[in-house]
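Dear colleagues,

For the upcoming journal club I promised to circulate an example of a predicted protein-ligand complex. I picked one with adenosine-5'-triphosphate because it came up in last month's discussion. The inputs are reproduced below in full, followed by the predicted structure.
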Amino acid sequence: MKKIIIIKYGELNTKKANIGLFLKTLKNNIARVIDDDSIVIKYDKGRMYVDCKENDEEEILTKIKNVFGIHELTMGYELETNDFELVKEAVKALVSNIKGQTFKVETKRSDKNYFLTSLEISQKLGAIILKENSNLQVDVKNPESVVHIEIRRTNAYIYLETQLGLGGYPVGVMGKGLLMLSGGIDSPVAGFLAMKRGVKIAAIYFDSPPHTSIEAKNKVLKLASILSSYQGNIKVFVVPFTKLQETIYKEVPSEYMITIMRRMMYRISQKVAQKNNCKIIINGESIGQVASQTLDSMNVINEVVTMPVIRPVACFDKLEIIDLAKKINTYETSILPYEDCCTIFVPEHPVIYPKQEKCLEYEQKFAYEDLIEEAVANVKVINPNEKKDEFKKYL
Ligand code: ATP
Ligand code: MG
């Protein structure tokens, strides 16, 4: 009798051509969070099984819950025969994990020659559960817990009702993307949603010391570190942005400052993305949230890059974004009060309907290409998980 975690894939099942890659990636991603080579993970087309051995299955389950590509998961037992005595033993071992007061047993029997029918199996095992725990009651219509029994030709599975996983695709199957990560609420959520679609992310942060503080940068590193629990390490490219920003402040009329600054950010993001094999840019823009996120602004800003810019929260309300930020654990960090480079240079009346001609006219006033080259050449790569101790002290 083996204590196992059973994983169901859901949406993965529909991706016939890629299924091999999907499952291999999912298996690797699960192995990474468990981080214990002695634990065996095996799979077939419908399910993955994690052999918990003597380890704490609740702890393993908690870790696996953060892995994308899992539709449902649960803990249970695998038997190498379908011997009914052993099935009974497994059921007894599961009784203490039954949640709530009421339960039912549901049996699937693919071995049609088995000496008991599905109904008989359910009845006999239900009686055993009642004997083991007299506080429980059977409720076949609306039970709080379901004990699943699967009798196959050569083996059997006994497990409790499944809980929902995060869904989506295993991180990495869709290649890499570059997330523009500010310290705000929106961009970490955008990153989470991109990872959910199987995109492995790296992050880019525009740093403008001394106008932005070391705390603001460390907050971004902390956010990257929180997000890394969903995919493993996230590299952060820190772009020295001060010179460009100061030049914009000097050369560009105040109402266009943000528009031009964002065009510079996009240009730099695309260059860093291309250098690092990222195929898309991801950011936390949301339609209409601020002046630079009107449809006109998006057009004028987007126009400077050719790479797709994915905006996962474009159509979310702020409250929906906040809700998700809380669920994924980034909210408390995002609301810490450190300014980002946009808030320092915020003009009183940013343009809401910017014109491309105006942008080109203002950009001609300074050698922005050189400044961009210089910024890209001086990008620093930080692995926040290695530097954890360094930024912890700021937060
Ligand atoms: P957020 O809550 O994510 O900070 P926001 O509502 O403050 O977003 P903006 O400041 O206009 O909106 O930024 C829009 C998006 O641009 C951000 O979600 C982020 O993806 C990107 N961005 C903004 N500032 C930076 C920065 N300093 N470094 C990296 N990306 C940034
Ligand atoms: Mg912001």
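Two points we might discuss: The chain has two domains: 2-164, 176-394. The longest strand covers residues 70-79.

See you all on Thursday,
B. R.
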